[in-house]
Amino acid sequence: MNKVILSVAVIAALGLTSCKNETKKVEETTATEVSKEMAMTDLSFGVRGNCGMCKSTIEKAANGVDGVASASWDVDKKKIDVSFDASKTDAMAIHKAIAASGYDTEKVAGSEEAYKDLPGCCKYDHEMMMNQSGETKSEDHSDHNH
Question: How many CB atoms lie within 10 A of CB 47?
Answer without folding.
Answer: 32
